[in-house]
Amino acid sequence: MNPVTPYNNTESKKEQVAQMFDNIAFRYDFLNSLLSLGIHKGWRKKCIKLIADKQPKHILDVATGTGDFAIAAMKLNPTKVIGIDISEGMMKFGREKLQKLNLDKTITLQYGDAETCDLADNSMDAITVGFGVRNFENLEKGLTNMLRILKPGGQLCVLEFSSPQKFPVKQFYKFHFKYITPTLGRLFSKDTRAYTYLPESIKAFPDNERFTAILEKVGYKKASFSSVGLGLASIYLAEK
Q1: Model confidence, pTM
Q2: Sequence-separated (6 or more) residues with CB below 8 Å from residue 231
């Protein structure tokens, strides 16, 4: 089965995703809050609480975008946070946020992706991914490389959209993503594909038990998930 891609052209999924996020970067934070009514902020806080017990000091945030997950990780009082992303456009706005918050000394945003990131073996206490794993070109390769980077006992925490199954959330979800999301996306971002790709990529993603099975397959231990937002998203936790 061919991977779901933003533009359905001959470029790789990675290239298309980078182009898409470059295109919508100037409106991303605004639309994210508008479309989710700000609920995603509370989901990230739950993720941070889940990894707080081990007091991670070196944290990698994959698919960091404009840096929201990296910024949320500052609650853990880390000594260093590295955010990587394939969209320079998104990170441009992220770096501006970091400067305004005086966090640019602790948080560094740099080009990179989960599959090819060359950070040292066993170098990170925790790795976070917020709404990014479904955009990986090769999911297992990305997860395997992140496992290499994690220290033994280190934790991976993934926040990702899922497909709700229960009434009436399932019906609301379908209506929202079929009509509201694409309409607002076209109106504010001017990219006609970015916000129709979103529900397509969620539908194609192996969520919940299927994703924890993949985590265990590539070598993670204690893989688990919990649903948030009445099934609109899931938080996955695993360790090395």
Answers
A1: 0.94
A2: 162, 163, 164, 165, 166, 169, 170
